[in-house]
Specification:
Elements (H helix, E strand, L loop, with lengths): L1 E2 L6 E2 L32 E4 L5 E3 L13 E2 L9 H25 L3 H22 L3 H14 L5 H13 L2 H7 L1 H4 L4
Antiparallel strand pairs: 1-2, 3-4, 3-5
């Protein structure tokens, strides 16, 4: 048995990673040389709980306070609800553009307003699928505004607001920030 230099846990001699903290144990090259980081690469570890990137010297996560780390970033899956709400937002954008065309014949300014809102909905909905946090925030703003469209807009606004504030959804949209620079 050998000892992990990161967390001092006992690790089997043939282990490549520490079972407790995820530290990469195989740090020697073919000629018995220690592998050095390339360039100015900083040694980091990733929180198992929230996925945040932390300096290797941290004992606890700077984002959530957890003491469980891995040397490999955690993959955050896109929640199914994001796909459903993106499709609903896309359809809502098409409806807004259609209303703009319909009412634009009588009031040209309404065409501009509805078309602008519809295009924003389309862009935000497509961006939800790629995990852009600004799109989540924009959809939340639209959801607050739709609360005044009783009864359907109110129900949809509540559903969108509730879902986009769920911790696993927020984590999905902020995953790039967690893996960014420290």
């Amino acid at each position: 048995m050998k000892v992990c230099p990161n967390c001092s846990a006992a690790v089997p001699d043939n282990a490549e990673f520490c079972d407790h903290c995820g530290y990469q144990m195989n740090t020697t090259g073919n000629a018995g040389e220690t592998i050095q980081p390339i360039g100015n690469a900083e040694r980091v570890k990733y929180c198992i709980n929230c996925g945040a990137r932390n300096p290797f010297s941290n004992a606890v996560c700077s984002n959530c306070g957890s003491s469980n780390f891995s040397s490999i970033p955690r993959q955050v899956e896109r929640p199914d609800g994001v796909v459903i709400l993106a499709i609903l937002g896309f359809l809502g954008g098409l409806v807004d553009i259609g209303m703009g065309v319909l009412f634009g014949a009588l009031f040209p300014i309404l065409f501009i307003v509805f078309a602008f809102i519809g295009i924003l909905f389309l862009i935000a909905s497509l961006s939800l699928l790629t995990g852009k946090n600004w799109a989540r925030i924009l959809m939340m703003i639209f959801s607050v505004l739709s609360l005044f469209n009783f009864p359907v807009g109110t129900i949809l606004g509540i559903v969108f607001l509730y879902y986009f504030t769920r911790p696993h959804v927020v984590q999905y949209f902020k995953r790039d920030q967690n893996y960014g620079s420290i």
